[in-house]
Design brief:
Blueprint: H1 2-37, H2 40-63, H3 67-75, H4 84-98, E1 101-102, E2 110-113, H5 131-140, H6 144-156, E3 159-161, E4 168-172, E5 178-182, E6 187-188, E7 193-200, E8 219-222, E9 228-233, E10 239-242, H7 246-256, E11 268-271, H8 297-305, H9 311-328, E12 331-334, H10 347-365, E13 370-372, H11 390-397, E14 402-406, E15 413-415, E16 420-426, H12 429-437, H13 446-453
Parallel strand pairs: 2-7, 2-16, 3-7, 7-11, 11-12, 13-14, 14-16
Antiparallel strand pairs: 1-6, 4-5, 8-9, 9-10, 15-16
Helix pairs in contact: 2-3, 3-4, 10-11, 12-13
This protein binds zinc ion.
Amino acid sequence: MKMTIAGVILLFCIILIIIAVRALKNKGAKSAESDSTASQPTETASVNQLKTDTLASAGNLAAMYDYDKAIAAIEAYSGYESDTDMTAAIANYTSAKSSCTAADLSTVPHVFFHSLINDNRAFLVTDQVTPLLVQGNNSAMTTTGEFDAMLNDMYKAGYVLIGLDDIVIKTANTDGTETLAKNTALMLPAGKKPLLMSEDDLSYYHFMGENGIQGYADKLVLDSDGKVKCLFTDKSGTQQIGDYDMVPKIDTFISEHPDFCYQGARPTVALTGYNGVLGYRTNDYYKEGPDGEHLSSDQKAYLTNHPDYNYDNEVAEATKIADAMKAEGWTFASHTYGHWNASTHSAEELATDNERWNTTVRDVVGDTDKIIFAFGADIGPVNGYNESNDKFTYFLSQGYHIYCNVDGNIGWTEFGSNYVRTGRVPLDGVSMYNAMTESASSHTTYAHDYEVLGINDIASFFDPDRTLEYCTAES
Ligand SMILES: [Zn+2]
């Protein structure tokens, strides 16, 4: 018995000694660590890192033609005057800035897209994908492969993305109105040309189907780094988060090619409200439930298939995405609430529609002074809007100053004293097909548009799964 107790005590002592030795070793390791943190070489390394980071950040700003901010970033670094790398960078940026000239913003090409198609499910008729949908996908849509190729061509041709707000200088008047004037001081280096871009109908409408059934993303989401990406179900049925539409594709392209971007500019996204925005069902009519009097059959089917639908959650999530996009430089435009043709609807009807847009879209994305008319329609003739135009006076009273239609004459732009209007060209199935089959001699052909944009070999990227006869006319 005594022997057993002595054995247990001995074992206990051995364990205690082992624990004590391990604790001492750990303490030693930790103090060695904190000693090295305080040592001279690491301090120098962190100073070097700060200098490297400052130069990288300034270099990125300068690549985006923001030479003043680049120089200010370096001047914020303590002791930059005595650092030859820093002073050389300032000299470079000063020289680059002085060699820039003012871009002519009277003829800026404005290209637009819809949600991008990620695979050939868009082009194949199935039980769930009707011939009518296949026809629409062929005519009005663009694939990710086609988009990538065209973006790269425009970049190589020297185009630089500017924002719609960059083309005008706005001055607030004392009566609350704004006076607009053409920006005559947007400075770019030799060989660089301004380009406007927009994406229409970024709602992931019900007709596009859920879970990638036609190769479209389902919605925009934030990834673990807070970046705007797409939720997309690939052909194997696996959910992916990545660059499956224009928004994340442009952000990624600019992070890799900052010289495609003028001072942080991003395209404008044109939104309707009837199916919600950005893949979220933010129309308050969905609150009526599956039998709602204001809902269409596909909206009712959506609610039946999603009994957990929660309006407040949809608005909260969509607002997070919109905020992240705005922080990155994206802007939003009205595309009318109901995708209405502004040419054929009356001013009173457009006013009613705009109230619905405010409820379903503006409350999520915030105020905008931009309207991109659906169907490429317009509210006035090419020779200008005036005060006798009741649609124009209504939209102006609602704060809209930037108007966009679709125009066959690429780069068509009109500057009024209280508005600016730009004509857009689609880079979609119809325009690509026509551009391949036309002569570029006329200014109003698609072939001419693509030539201006530096997109010269459409056949090399035109999606082989397209059906050519569906690409010959808008559906
Ligand atoms: Zn549209």
